[in-house]
Design brief:
homodimer, alpha/beta, Rossmann fold, Dihydrodipicolinate Reductase, domain 2, Alpha-Beta Plaits, 3 domains, eleven-stranded mixed beta sheet, six-stranded parallel beta sheet
């Protein structure tokens, strides 16, 4: 067996501790599959005194992770500090500059600077592994880059944020409202104190743009992602979704169109018959549609210490075994920023819910607004007469239409005097 | 870009033609990801005159695939002839002997001779790729070998035969009997004229034992697989399964136990809440349970020209890119035959259905037989009095018990005069 792969680990939070623990617990199995041992020889974290319950014997301690990353005798650096600016990026840069392989779970950093960092790594002849940055333990990047390498991908979509899927699942199962479930999720540790990144779709956008870059072989283009979160999804909409044969999921969707690459994150009505509709709670899933393979779905844990460590260590094993593959599947210097398909030109079906006053002519006004934009209704649900002056819901689903037309119709409908609240719109995804 | 990888293709059936077509259709994408073009330069098939609609220009034709496999100037041989004995094995042997990489979709050959062939390939320093042999387009071998390489796998199970899953899905949806659906499936081309390999579980056993070898890093051990097919599954059992919250699937299951490696193929009652319960029709799925990653499921097309070609070409791309990984995840010379856990010692829950004459004392006799073997009943369903002398069904589910005890109880129950047909037993899988 060859010499060990010598690792410096920057960051000893949940994932860092999990990585250290996994490398030790399964050391023999890992060495057998990697062809050599993988040893953590240096660690760095903010607070040396913090009690972590980790045995750090055999590791040197470094207050400065950047200084650690460039030490001679280190073969690879694991960056688990996080954040798109600040120290994490400097650790990665320094490691690459000094010819060390890098493995990171930092989706924000990669989403902002992935192409640039991949080019730097390629120029230095080192690997940049980021399997752990997307969908935790699901080895989707390896599957796209290698397992499905013979395919032209025609669409990729996924449930990429466990917090959102947990909230939406509980809202449906308990017929509860978003704010109540979020508060409870925060109490239970399934949502952060500041949940913005998760529930506003930003975390999903980071992961989607990395998936899209690997799937389509282009530069990472975070700015091109259309992003909406789940704050505006109501218990009522989830109930209507069920009645119409759908489940509401926050999806990231990317696909090449004639107008360019479409990348979008928003709540979707997905048919209950679609495999992804059954992905519940904190689980993540990614569906790849390839011209040869057809539909392939991977479902697993998208977060947590051990699943994320599983992905981090798989990258290390590839490095130890000398199985280099370019991080984005093709040489980094060939990565070009794709043309962006404008969201206004997106075509799809829509669900809208209006709260209207129950009086003659309301439906006629709404229908006229849709008709004037060439939006064709598929179904309408109008139910039970409310008490006098109470708003009643009207739910409409449309046939496929253009986003811009839909937005114009919604703007006009929103201004009707008989429409009492801001209309709710959720896109229907044809899966 | 480097020199092309020069390929000889043995076998031009469905998958062979699909591979040729895919390599040409996506040639640019494939070359970009592989770092070099992949060219088929030689082909061999039984009948040169057969009309295949393939453009074979640029390929030399060879009547003898073994002679083709050893030609100088060939870098890799694709074996798509099939069969565990005969010409396919000789093509693979000859190619390896002459230092050519080999890619094959031949599960029967690998299930019988996988370890030996992997050792030969390793000794010659060539790759033996067989991603296409298990679950068609699902890149499960790469995922096990590389993506989940940091994990100790605690259980692996899957729906590995699309024909069986198609038949069971239609039996449930149409409340139809096995023989009728099989006949229709044969008419539609979803089942072979001689369906034995599929419906008796042999094909699933081939794939399971390959999965187990990769997941647990041992020698392929087909003889150790307990195999039952789906011929005895009735529409009635499928209906009861639904009532009890289960779906019936033909699963291959492998897991290490204290008594050795358990490998078994049989119809299973799986909870309707389990993700694999939703895998319908011809789709395949594999679930891996790893100590770090937790539960990971992959679902996709397990057969067909294009999905299987996707897997064949992914192996070629790895070879072209110089990403060698041992076929079974660890060096072949280290592969040892695992100790086998005897099926009689298997522990699990059971579903049994008896057809009894509706008279006093029947249940008491059945209950006594179970009690004497320490089998604890979980539920019993006994329904509607039949016309005089007509058999009535009694359905019992048990708590976890040992297979041997269950078999003894069933033998005794089967001999009761009041039990009118041979009892039906289906294992319940705790997922």
């Amino acid at each position: 067996m060859s010499a060990p792969l010598r690792i410096a680990l920057a960051g000893l939070g949940t994932v860092g501790a999990g990585t250290l623990t996994l490398l030790r617990a399964n050391a023999a199995t890992i060495a057998r599959r990697a062809g050599r041992p993988i040893d953590i020889v240096a660690v760095s974290a903010r607070d040396k005194k913090k009690r972590r319950g980790l045995d750090l014997s055999g590791c040197t301690w470094h207050a400065d992770p950047v200084a650690m990353a460039v030490l001679p005798g280190i073969d690879a650096v694991i960056e688990l500090i996080g954040g798109s600016d600040g120290i994490a990026g400097r650790v990665v840069e320094a490691a690459i500059e000094h010819g060390k392989h890098v493995v990171t779970a930092n989706k924000a950093l990669l989403a902002h600077r992935g192409t640039e960092l991949a080019k730097r790594a390629e120029a230095k002849g080192v690997s940049l592994g980021f399997e752990a940055a997307v969908a935790g333990g699901i080895p989707i990047l390896k599957v796209l880059r290698e397992g499905l390498a013979a395919n032209r991908v025609t669409r990729i979509y996924g449930i990429l944020n466990g917090t959102c899927n947990y909230i939406l699942t509980r809202m449906r199962d308990e017929r509860a409202e978003f704010a109540d479930v979020l508060a409870d999720a925060q109490r239970l540790g399934y949502a952060e104190a500041d949940p913005t990144f998760d529930i506003d779709g930003i975390d999903t956008a980071h992961k989607l743009t990395l998936l899209a870059a690997v799937a389509f072989g282009g530069a990472v283009d975070l700015g091109a992602v259309h992003v909406e979160g789940i704050r505006h999804v109501s218990a009522q909409d989830i109930e209507y979704a069920g009645e119409l044969g759908y489940t509401i999921k926050l999806l990231g969707v990317a696909r090449p169109t004639e107008r360019g690459l479409e990348q979008r994150v928003h709540p979707c009505m997905v048919p209950q018959t679609a495999p992804i509709a059954h992905v519940e709670g904190v689980f993540n899933a990614v569906v790849v549609e390839g011209d040869a393979v057809g539909r392939l779905m991977l479902e697993g844990r998208g977060a947590g210490a051990a699943p994320t460590a599983s992905a981090v260590v798989s990258d290390l094993i590839d490095i130890a075994a000398g199985r280099g593959a370019p991080g984005f599947g093709v040489p980094a210097k060939a990565l070009r920023t794709p043309k962006t398909a404008p969201m206004a030109r997106h075509r799809g079906a829509y669900y809208i819910r209006l709260m209207v006053s129950d009086r003659p002519g309301v439906i006629a006004d709404v229908a006229a607004a849709l008709r004037d934009e060439q939006v064709s209704m598929e179904q309408m649900l109008q139910r039970g007469r409310a008490k006098a002056r109470e708003a009643v819901p009207v739910v409409i689903t449309t046939h496929e239409t253009e986003e811009a037309a839909m937005r114009r119709a919604m703007a006009r409908i929103g201004k009707l005097k008989t429409v009492l609240e801001s209309p709710c719109l959720i896109r229907i995804e044809n899966l």
